[in-house]
Design goal:
The complex is a heterodimer. By secondary structure, chain A is mainly alpha-helical. Chain A has a single domain, classed as Growth Hormone, Chain: A. In chain A, about 65% of the residues lie in helices and about 0% in strands. Chain A is built from 5 helices and 1 strand, in the order ααβααα. The termini of chain B are far apart. Chain B has 3 domains: about 80 residues, Sandwich (Immunoglobulin-like), CATH 2.60.40; about 80 residues, Immunoglobulins (Immunoglobulin-like, Sandwich), CATH 2.60.40; about 90 residues, Immunoglobulin-like. In chain B, about 10% of the residues lie in helices and about 40% in strands. Chain B is elongated, with a radius of gyration of 34 Å. A 5-stranded mixed β-sheet of chain B has the order 1-8-7-3-4, with no helix packed on it. In chain B, strands 9-10-14-13 form a 4-stranded antiparallel β-sheet, with no helix packed on it. Classes of the chains: A mainly alpha, B mainly beta. The interface between A and B is medium-sized, with 23 and 23 residues. β1 of chain A pairs antiparallel with β15 of chain B. Chain A: CNTF is a survival factor for various neuronal cell types. Seems to prevent the degeneration of motor axons after axotomy. Chain A: It is found in: Cytoplasm. Chain A: Keywords: Cytoplasm, Developmental protein, Differentiation, Growth factor, Neurogenesis. Chain A: This is Ciliary neurotrophic factor. Chain A: One of its GO terms (molecular function) is cytokine activity.
Chain lengths: ~200, ~325
């Protein structure tokens, strides 16, 4: 791990983390706007409860403070790769549904998809820096079940975007943890003490 | 035997003298004072439409022997109204606390039971020693979209009531106000004040969970606040203060990404640096003083004092005129 621990690698990591934090912040802001647009376009109630959606990476995590840097990067990477597929599916459904290539919702979805792709690339760079190599791009995101009605698809989309918004917050936190000086990227930080 | 008896305000209360027959001769006392026979029905004590002042110790004595036959402590009160419940995370991401109170007192002891459910999981809310009506929960999961459901039930001898709060993890995040706010004048700068503060000590990890801040300030003589939002750092220099005017300054904090703003910090007061008055012995010194005096009455660029929307309202025009008159007066004096 000598390369990962060199001063230049440390600077590069902090730089990537800073940029990643800004990307995550912008992404979250845009996803929140997209959520408003989506809810309006799809005629949904913004406070509607959505059950856990199969194939959507869940941001919720236990013992978050005990995760190693590598765990954080790997989980983030897996999540955003899945979101890339899910958003592409939503975009395709949107285009099928409305039959038009260019709608406000379509544009907003495409913009967020672009940011998700950029963030994925960013995470891959960070993992490369840690000499971890990047896991192969095999994302097990099931296609939405064809028997899902239109309303169910809309709710599924709501679930995807909500979870993405959570991930964007989590990613910023993960990258701040990663940017902290530590003896080695693999070492787990000590758990928080009780209040 | 001594008992405690709880009764509602407005209720009619009948007290029996233990196992004494109805027609036994007895004497009742309330807090040691004999009760008039008009309140007795045989050996039963009848209290109609009781009120809070009738709480106390009631004793029944056998007529001739004055043996104590029965004693009870009457507590007059009310069943609980719906409690007021609040939950907040001021130490994110460690956990959150819930606190509660009754909108009106019951005047009798109450017990509180709180349940916290997250999805299918029931969480333990550990009661705080102080304050009493508060408990705290440690987060098991972070970044969850599943809502928390908190139900508080309050029970006393006369009834029970409950309330439920439902919220998500991010919504209740509200830091404590910033601490150690200090405002100082800046030497040789009559329009500046340097303000600094610290993160609230209850916020456990400002490095990973940075706070952003909102500063507000106004001269004491005005009602309208100036606001500045700061995304990082724990200091700020005000550059548009009115020279010589005492300012009141407060700061609030918010997590960079989620939740709501804290309450405002304790207010601090400060007055910008002012030049010491000089003796006007030379023309050059007179000119210098004129320039300094004129600039002190120049409204700062961001001032609201002459704006249409100023809170000062009808007084704003008067202040504008006053400033203009003073400027004109100085101009006339020193031509």
């Amino acid at each position: 791990m000598a390369a990962a621990d060199s001063p230049s690698a440390g600077l590069r990591r902090r730089d990537l983390c800073s940029r990643g934090i800004r990307l995550a912040g912008k992404m979250r802001s845009d996803v929140m706007d997209l959520l408003d647009t989506y809810v309006e376009w799809q005629g949904l109630d913004a406070s509607a409860s959505v059950a856990a959606v199969e194939g959507v990476p869940v941001a919720a995590v236990e013992r978050w403070d005990e995760q190693t840097g590598t765990q954080r990067l790997l989980e983030n990477l897996a999540a955003y790769r899945a979101f890339r597929v899910l958003l592409a599916q939503m975009l395709e459904e949107q285009q099928e549904q409305l039959g038009e290539a260019d709608t406000a919702l379509g544009r907003a979805l495409a913009a967020v998809l672009l940011q998700v792709s950029a963030f994925t690339y960013h995470l891959e760079e960070l993992l490369q820096l840690e000499s971890r190599g990047t896991p192969s791009e095999e994302v097990a995101v099931p296609a939405p079940p064809s028997q899902l009605g239109l309303f169910e698809r809309k709710l599924r989309g709501l679930g995807v975007l909500r979870e993405l918004a959570q991930w964007a917050v989590r990613s910023a936190r993960d990258l701040r943890q990663l940017a902290k000086p530590s003896p080695g990227i693999s070492s787990a930080p000590s758990p928080d003490e009780s209040p | 035997d001594s008992h405690i008896q709880y009764e509602r305000v407005g209720a009619d209360v009948t007290m029996k003298c233990g196992s004494m027959d109805w027609d036994a001769a007895v004497t009742w006392t309330a807090n040691g004072t004999d009760i008039d026979e008009s309140h007795l029905n045989g050996s039963y004590l009848i209290l109609k439409n009781v009120d809070l002042t009738q709480s106390g110790q009631y004793s029944c004595y056998e007529g001739s022997s004055w043996h104590l036959k029965y004693q009870t402590y009457l507590r007059v009160g009310t069943p609980p109204k719906e409690p007021v419940l609040m939950c907040r995370s001021n130490n994110y991401p460690k956990g959150f606390y819930c606190s509660w109170h009754l909108p009106t007192p019951t005047y009798i002891p109450n017990s509180f039971n709180i349940s916290v459910i997250h999805g299918t999981r029931e969480m333990v809310c550990e009661k705080d020693v102080f304050p009493k009506n508060r408990c705290h929960i440690r987060y098991i999961q972070l970044f969850s979209t599943v809502k928390y459901k908190v139900t508080l039930t309050v029970t006393n001898a006369l009834g029970k009531n409950s309330t439920t709060l439902t919220f998500d993890e991010f919504a209740i995040v509200k830091p404590d106000p910033p601490e150690s706010v200090v405002a100082k004048p800046v030497p040789n700068n009559p329009r500046r004040l340097e303000v600094s503060w610290q993160n609230p000590s209850s916020w456990p990890d400002p490095e990973s969970f940075p706070l952003k801040f909102f500063l507000r300030y106004r001269p004491l003589i005005l009602d309208q606040w100036q606001h500045v939002e700061l995304s990082d750092g724990t200091s700020h220099t005000i550059t548009d203060a009115y020279a010589g005017k005492e300012y009141i300054i407060q700061v609030a904090a918010k997590d960079n990404d989620i939740g709501t703003w804290s309450d405002w910090s304790v207010a601090v007061h400060a007055t910008p640096w002012t030049e010491e008055p000089k003796h006007l012995t030379t023309e050059a010194q007179i000119t210098e003083t004129t320039r300094a005096s004129t600039s002190s009455f120049m409204p700062p660029p961001t001032t609201k004092i002459c704006d249409k929307g100023a809170v000062v309202g009808s007084g704003a025009v008067a202040v504008c005129w006053t400033a203009g008159l003073v400027l004109a007066a100085y101009g006339v004096l020193f031509i």
